[in-house]
Amino acid sequence: MIILKLSRESFRFAFDALRQNKLRTLLSLLGVTIGIFTVIGVLSAVDTLRANLQKSVNKLGGNSVYVQKWPWIGGDDFPWWKYLQRPDPKLRDFDQLQRRSQTAAAISYEIGIGDRTIKYQDHTAEGAQINAVTQDHDKVWNFDLSEGRYFTEIDSRTGAPVALIGYDIATNLFPSGSPIGKQIKVMGRYVTVIGVFAKEGKDLFGNSDDNAVLVPLNFARDVIDVQANQYQPTIIVKGKPGLTDLDVESELEGLMRSIRRIQPGQEDNFSLNRATLISNQLDQIFGVLNTAGWIIGGFSLLVGGFGIANIMFVSVKERTNIIGIQKSLGAKNYFILLQFLIEAIVLCLLGGVIGLGLVYLGTMAVQAAVDIKVVLDIGNIILGMSTSIGIGIISGIIPAYSASRLDPVEAIRSN
Question: Which GO cellular component terms, listed alphabetically, does the Swiss-Prot or TrEMBL entry include (predicted)?
Fold first, then answer.
């Protein structure tokens, strides 16, 4: 009952302070509002980037390793001339890995043929990204089909003229019907559409299957040299369940050195890339952004804290006579202390609520302007409220303590 009474009176005093001294109170709350807005805004922006980038990384496969010519992670002293001389992954490497790997659940050899024009009767789709892959592509990549099916083993082995197409290509070429079973012209050859990728939109890396065309590698071999470096050949190895990407990478390094007959002491002439390399780099970047957000927001919260403390000292001075009357009627020191401390917390919570409201309005504006899912989770909201309460306690404890130690006689006699 005492806590409820204190809370009710403190809310009333806080409201009266806001009502009677609107400009002074609002200016003091501005620091807390800006601080909470900055901290929670940065954390939400980082969470949004992390969620969307992680979604893109997850598409690459959790425990998949990419055997490529170039490494994914570079630096200021990136020796590009050394990597330029490396050979691209060959079909021989792929065949040997299929035979000898003990950790692989699936292995795929893939190339990207680049932007091409796809035709169906009088309709055309510009800028299609054609990818030629082996049978295990569906096991090393994560994707969904809106209709149709994936390649059969016979399709892949014989190089059947079949294809899977992206949602945008299907919409452009077949605006009024299903593309399944229809023949489209790809790289000067007619192929039958057997599947359509589900619509997914571009991720933050700019990747999407909406404009993709997937054909069997053995079909593309009859048209182009699938081992040419211009198509950036890649071997993707997905590890068996229970194995980490490090387990797979360790075996692949030994196998590739053996396949390419690299002598002990000689440097690898291939790169083994993992999705976790990107995740680790992102974690470092996001850690820096989080720290920057706390530093910038911390200065605003510091200013806001001084503002709240100033309000509380003024409030104590203005209500000294009332404090004296309360103490003369039997009010304990802790009652006075809690009264002013709760008032400081209420004022800070008000600033925090305004800051969170601005963050929420910002997320709505971003979602309305850009097709991106903004993350504002309950954890950040709780963090914002907890920070506001902490600032209120720190800012109000000294004024509240000084009020609780006032002599009742001297307080009543004050003007």
Answer: plasma membrane
**Quick one: which of 406, 57, 31, 26 has its CA closest to 205?**
57
pLDDT tens readout for residues 202-230: 665 556 778 889 999 999 988 888 888 88
Query: What b-and-e string marks burial along 51-86, b requiring 16 or more CB atoms within 10 Å of the CB?
Result: ebbeebbebbbebbbbbbbeeeeeeeeeeeeebeeb
Strands 123-133 and 183-186, bridge-based pairing: unpaired
The number of angstroms, rounded, from the C-alpha of 202 to the middle of its chain's C-alpha atoms is 14
E-assigned strand segments in 134-239? 145-148, 162-165, 183-186, 189-197, 212-216, 234-239
Q: Hey, how many other C-beta atoms are within 10 angstroms of the C-beta on 183?
A: 16
Asked if 40 and 294 count as a contact pair (C-beta separation under 8 A), the reply is no
pTM above 0.90, yes or no: no
**What Rg value do the Cα atoms of the chain yield, rounded?**
32
Per the CB < 8 A criterion, the answer to whether 32 and 301 are in contact is: yes
